[in-house]
Input
Amino acid sequence: MSSTSTAQRIRVLVVGLGTMGTSHARAYQAIKEFELVGPSATSRAAERHDLEAEFPGLPRFDGIDEALATLRPDAVAICNLHRASRGHGLAGSCRRRTCFL
Output
């Protein structure tokens, strides 16, 4: 990615809010070439009030369908069971946890 100020950041959605998902979200947030657009869980994301302190202002979603439709990210980091990506048209290998759209 170009280091010029006009370079567009990659908008990434993190799916899964366990240890791995939270770690990935922190990493994407810290890398200037990425824009963390939202964390998503397969359930109960809205109940995770601890996420507001760490990721202020980011919308939280209880499922991947709503998150994808609302945010339209450039990339999705799948940080939970691989079945979360099935049927959503996500391209790429989930073994390495990131699917680029």
The chain has one domain: 10-100.
